[in-house]
Design a protein that fits this description.
There is one protein chain. This protein has 311 residues and is of the alpha/beta class. The chain folds into 3 domains: 120 residues, HAD superfamily/HAD-like (Rossmann fold), CATH 3.40.50.1000; 109 residues, 3-Layer(aba) Sandwich (Rossmann fold); 43 residues, no CATH class. The strands form 5 sheets. A 6-stranded parallel sheet has the order 5-4-1-13-14-15, with helices on both faces. A 5-stranded parallel sheet has the order 7-6-8-9-12, sandwiched between helices. A 4-stranded antiparallel sheet has the order 16-17-18-19, covered by helices on one side. Helix 6 packs across helix 7.
C-alpha cells in the first residue's frame, strides 16, 4: 500500500537519492519541472545525491550537464555505477592489472584513476568491466568473451534492459550483458541498482539518516530501495508507465508516486480501498471489467488506482 506523508517529502526526509536518466533528463533534454523541484527541495535544506546506473559518463561531465540544465551539481554530488564497478575490481586484482573496458572512454578513465590499466583487447586482461556505450560492436563483445572464458572477472555497472530517451526506451546495458552471458555461459557481478553497493555509497556521500530514493524504474530504483530498507518516490517521466505501475509485483512497489519531481514538494494522501473502489483525496478509481478506471488524470486518482490494483 502507498504511504501517506502529512508533510512535503522534502521535509519528511533529509536527503534525496535522485536517479538521472528519466528523472532529471532524457538524453540531452531536461525533464519538465525537474530543475525547479530540485532547486526548491535543496532550498528547504534537503541534501541531494545524483545516483545513476549509467556508467558511460564521468561525474564531472554529469555535473556540467546538470548545471547546464539549471540543476545545481558538483562532481562529488554524483555517484555512478562505473565508480562502484572500479572500486569492486580494485579490491580484487593487483594494482596496474589490465582490465578490458566494454564501455565509453569515460569508463576507461575511471579504470585508470582506480589504479588499473584500461585496455580494449583481450591479451593479458584479467577482468572485464562493462557499461553502456552506443559504439559497442560485435568485435568488442568478442574480445570480452575471450577474457571471461579464460576465467577473468566480469563486473557490470547495471543490467537495465532499456535506456530512457526522448524517443522512448532504447536497448540498455542489460541487453548487451545478456548477449555476452549467452555467448559465455557466465554471469557478471552487478554493482548498480538494485544491488546495495550504489545505495550505500550514495547514503555515505550525503551523510543521510533518512534518505528517499527517487527514480523512474520499478526493477532498479524501487527494488533497490526495498532491498536497502529505504522509502522511494517513483516518477512517471521515464521508463515506468501507468500500466506497469498498476501491475507492479509485491516487493517492487514504491512508497510514494508522482507524475514528476514536483512530488518532492507536496504532502501525499493515503488512498482508501473499499470493495471495488478506492479514493485518494478527490481522486477516485473503480474496477471496470478487467481493468481499473479513474475519475481523472491526477496523481491522487492514480494513487487510488494503484491501491485498488495492489489490493
Amino acid at each position: 500500500m502507498l504511504a501517506a506523508s502529512d508533510r512535503p517529502l522534502h521535509e519528511a526526509y533529509d536527503a534525496a537519492l535522485l536517479d538521472l536518466d528519466g528523472v532529471l533528463y532524457l538524453g540531452p533534454d531536461p525533464v519538465p519541472h525537474a530543475a525547479e523541484a530540485v532547486r526548491a527541495a535543496r532550498g528547504h535544506g534537503m541534501r541531494v545525491a545524483y545516483v545513476t546506473n549509467n556508467a558511460s559518463r564521468r561525474p564531472d561531465v554529469v555535473a556540467v550537464h546538470l548545471t547546464e540544465l539549471g540543476i545545481p551539481a558538483e562532481p562529488e554530488d554524483v555517484v555512478t555505477s562505473g565508480q562502484a564497478a572500479v572500486r569492486w575490481l580494485a579490491a580484487r586484482v593487483p594494482a596496474g592489472s589490465r582490465v578490458l573496458v566494454l564501455g565509453t572512454d569515460g569508463l576507461a578513465e575511471e579504470v585508470e584513476e582506480g589504479g588499473l590499466r584500461p585496455v580494449r583487447k583481450a591479451d593479458g586482461a584479467v577482468a572485464v568491466i562493462q557499461g553502456l556505450a552506443p559504439t559497442t560492436a560485435w568485435t568488442d563483445l568478442a574480445e570480452a568473451s575471450v577474457v571471461i572464458r579464460a576465467g577473468g572477472l566480469w563486473v557490470a555497472g547495471n543490467t537495465d534492459s532499456t535506456y530512457p530517451s526522448n524517443r522512448g526506451p532504447l536497448p540498455g546495458n542489460g541487453a548487451l550483458v545478456a548477449a555476452l552471458a549467452v555467448a559465455t555461459g557466465q554471469q557478471p557481478v552487478v554493482v548498480g541498482k538494485p544491488e546495495p553497493e550504489l545505495h550505500r555509497a550514495s547514503v555515505d556521500r550525503v551523510g543521510a539518516s533518512r534518505p528517499l530514493v527517487v527514480g523512474d524504474r520499478l526493477d532498479t530504483d524501487v527494488l533497490g530501495a526495498v532491498r536497502a530498507g529505504a522509502d522511494s518516490l517513483l516518477v512517471l517521466t521515464g521508463v515506468t508507465d501507468r500500466a506497469q505501475l498498476l501491475a507492479a509485483p509485491e516487493g517492487m512497489r514504491p512508497t510514494y508516486l508522482s507524475s514528476d519531481l514536483r512530488g518532492l514538494l507536496v504532502p501525499h494522501r493515503a488512498p482508501v480501498v473499499q470493495g471495488d473502489a478506492a479514493t485518494c483525496g478527490a481522486g477516485r478509481a473503480w474496477r471496470a471489467g478487467t481493468g481499473i478506471a479513474t475519475s481523472d488524470d491526477s496523481d491522487d486518482a492514480l494513487r487510488a488506482a494503484c491501491a485498488l490494483s495492489w489490493s
